[in-house]
Amino acid sequence: MKRRFIVALFVLLLAFALVFTGCAKKEEAKPAPAAAAPAPAPVVAAKAAVDKDAVLMAAAKDYFAQLATGNNLINAADLKQMLTDNPDALFLVDIRRAADFEAGHIEGAYHSEWADLGKVLEKIPTNRQVVVICYSGQTAGQALGALKLAGFNAKSLLSGMNAWKDEPTVTGMNALSSRNNVSSPKGEEQEILWEAVRGYFASVGKDGNKLIKSQDLYDALEANPKAFKVIDIRGEKDFNEGHVIGSSHTAWAQFGTILPELDKKDKIVIVCFSGQTAGQTVGVLRTMGFDAYSLMGGINNGWKPADLPLEK
């Protein structure tokens, strides 16, 4: 009897142990699933650096291509009529010396020294016709060439204040620098162009107007025919009738086609009829970093009056 009791007790304990073990196994926490690997970060392509020379080249080519529709010059009679009809459509910038501006200028004009124009670009509106004024039109031509590269709608007064001498003027100072800022570069490419234009105007203070007299050019070429690379931008017929000895010809509106061929190591002289359109070309070239000069007075007002020989 006692033996049966011990066996029964042993069986009971064994059953209890099996039940307890099974429950314990059921209560064990299941292992957490493995964490998913983080998704790789998206690959962002590096932004390509903008080629500054390419931006300037494209803008310059566009400048010359647009010459097929106009020469960026306005004569005194047309300017006077526009000032009468709609003066608010115009914005006049006089780059003569301050004393000459104060002594007499076109009413409504603002003054800035030529070399300081880069400091006041923000003062010039982009929604008005800008007219740049100098003494003869040659330095204004350079200034407008640079301004147009920066995106301004600019022209120059043909023959400058010499053409306005019989028209009324006012005295006193009206500084461009006194105006509020009204413009700024739009986008990275225009920022590059503005920077280059500012550099050009700063170079005017350092390097001067880059106008070369006919006799000086003639003497330099006589001493060394390679002293200057001379490019005549008049019409082909005019070039064939007589040009500076050793010069090459490229029509003004086609000048953009030869830009990639020009060497910044060369001293380049641009020749036109009177220096007006050569001035624009030099303004563009100087902004691009070329060592460029304009023949003072051109063929008609410089070379011929100096009685220098022309090659046919």
What distinguishing features does this structure have?
single chain; 312 residues; alpha/beta; Oxidized Rhodanese, domain 1; 2 domains; five-stranded parallel β-sheet; 10 helices; 40% helix; globular
Spell out the blueprint of helices and strands:
Elements: H1 2-27, H2 52-65, E1 73-74, H3 76-85, E2 90-94, H4 98-103, E3 110-111, E4 129-133, H5 138-149, E5 154-157, H6 187-207, E6 211-212, H7 214-223, E7 229-232, H8 236-241, E8 248-249, E9 267-271, H9 276-288, E10 291-295, H10 298-303
Parallel strand pairs: 1-5, 2-3, 2-4, 4-5, 6-10, 7-8, 7-9, 9-10
Helix pairs in contact: 2-6, 2-9, 5-6, 5-9, 6-9
The average pLDDT score comes to 90
Top CATH class of the largest domain: Alpha Beta
Shape verdict: globular
- Catalogue the unreliable spans: 5-32
Radius of gyration from the alpha-carbon trace, in angstroms? 38 Å
- Report helical residue fraction: 25-40%
Strand content: 5-15%
Instruction: State the strand order across the main sheet.
Output: 1-5-4-2-3
* Count of alpha and pi helical runs: 10
How far apart the termini lie comes to: 147 Å
Number of strands: 10
Element order, helices and strands? HHEHEHEEHEHEHEHEEHEH
Secondary structure category = alpha/beta
Number of domains: 2
Q: What name is given to the CATH topology of the largest domain?
A: Oxidized Rhodanese, domain 1
The CATH architecture of the largest domain can be named as: 3-Layer(aba) Sandwich
Q: Give the CATH superfamily of the largest domain.
A: Rhodanese-like domain
Largest sheet: 5 strands, parallel
